[in-house]
Amino acid sequence: MKRHAWIISITSVVLPIFGCGAHVDRRLGQIEQRQSELDLRVAVDERRAADLRADTLQLQYVLDAQRRCIAWEECRAQTSRIRASIMANLAACNMNTANWFACDAQRTRNTAEGAGLGCLLGWVVAGVTGGAVAPAVLIGCGAGAATGSSGSTGSCTTQPKPRPCGQMGAAFQSEALMREGLTAMPVCGPMPEECAALNFSSR
After folding, report:
1. What's the domain count of the chain?
2. For residue 203, is it within any domain?
3. DSSP labels for 51-110?
4. What is the value of pTM for the model shown?
5. Within a domain: residue 31?
6. Domain range for residue 48?
7. pLDDT tens readout for residues 13-62
8. What is the DSSP code (8-state) at residue 163?
9. 11 in a structural domain
10. pLDDT tens digit string along 164-179?
11. Cα-based distances in Å from 66 to 19, 78, 200
12. In which band, very low, low, confident or very high, does the pLDDT at 111 lie, cut at 50, 70 and 90?
């Protein structure tokens, strides 16, 4: 009887221990599975973060390339504006010069015609009046020339002879640069290589 009681006593102690051990093993298994899931999720998140970093770097490269290409295009546009301004000023200068010389040629013709007519009248007056020929002719020639010159109109009558336009290039360039807020002609250089991939034109 005592032995039977002792076996029961031992069993009542050992069985809960084994039962508790099995429970702990199951709990540990659940924890390990949960940890594996967390590790997998962390690995996925890290890969996603790495992909995002790579995408961000790629986007930053593209943005930087676009900024360089836009700056290059703006430089070329500014250079084109400066050159167009210089060419416009040269064209206007050439036109003004042509007008001035046309005016001067007309004035010379008017002066010559007036002088010829005045001289003729001087001869007539001298013949009719029987006066001295030389004074009458000189007076007639001078009066005719003055009348012919004063009858001329145009830029040559109010403006001095213009400077050759070929000597005005530096002044026209300085004026064009000042309008752009520059002191020297911008140097754009060749088109950056990455601009071709971004569909920028080198023309």
Report:
1. 1
2. no
3. HHHHHHHHHHHHHHHHHHHHHHHHHHHHHHHHHHHHHHHHHHHHHHHHHHHHHHHHHHHH
4. 0.55
5. yes
6. 17-197
7. 444 544 555 555 677 777 777 877 777 787 777 788 777 787 777 888 88
8. P
9. no
10. 988 999 999 999 999 9
11. 70, 18, 9
12. low
